[in-house]
Amino acid sequence: CDDNVKLKLESRYGHYTSPEYQNDCIKIIASITRSNIIKQISPIGAFSILVDETKDTSKKEQLSLVIRFVDNEFNVFEKALGCYHMVKCNASTLSQEIQKIVIENNLDINKCIAQYYDGASVMSGVFSGVQKRISDAVPQAIFVHCYAHRLNLCLIHSIQNNSIVVNFFDTVQSLYKYLMNGNTRYEIFMKVQEDKNLKAIHLERLVETRWSYWHTSLQKIKMRITEILDVLKVLTVQDDQPAKALGLLKEVSTFRFVLVLHIMEKLLEAIHCLSCELQNPKISLPAAMDLVDLTRKELTTLRSDASYSLLYNKAKTHALSLGITVEEEQERNTRLRRKLQPS
């Protein structure tokens, strides 16, 4: 315990609920926790660093640093050393701060064998990024672009090339903002579920870097689409934004929305397991690669006509149960690329 803080605590009787005392207590807890982490890492011959930077709620840039290591019994650990306020976020400042944090915690920077960041150029730049500067100082510290982040980028870029899917997720996000951010609308949505003796479900916000939220969001909409339609019908009459409610009602009441809902829910279900496991600190590289191969095979299967027909029929049945008119689509165009056509 810090001697100055200890002296202040012993100097008078009180509840110690002021911001000053609370901050001092938090610092003490953080210091003791950090010391215990360092004791675990010190005997180990090697470690790797995981770094990310983001803005906090007060719009200040924070750098978070995590140490990954394996103990003598081959147990994998990831321990956060802390979050550090950054005034500048250029590659030079970040790389210097990372090395400074490692050294200040009595760790040998030369024992660092790997560094993990996202794909931002300031972090992963091959000529002057953080990874290049750390590699120059510690040559054995290989750079690994976070695989979960790479998966997110792949999904984002894939979706952006399909206008139907982009419009679908815009509608999903609009549903969340409209129903969850207004007290009256939220209460009506909860009451409709309560009147039907259903467990109250809250819609999820879509977060671009968290695909588990996207999967959960579609699951909840699929489970409560009947109640969502009922609420939107009520709000077209009672709400102060009836045009918004009417627009969402028309969009959700289409077979296209139901069909894309079924397709994307199934697609994200296949990716959800991989996304979660890639963030699991215990996973090994061979296990991760096996999971990637299995996911790739499952996605390939989902692209077949048989899988599409199955999803289409499920969506059709669901839409008819909701009273939504189903427009029969034309036969899928399965023409092969010229170089793949049989001779």
TrEMBL record:
Which segments constitute the DUF4371 domain? Answer: 5-129
Q: What is this protein called?
A: Zinc finger MYM-type protein 1-like
Matching entries from InterPro entries are given as:
DUF4371, RNaseH-like_sf
Cleavable signal peptide: none
Domain of life where this protein originates: Eukaryota
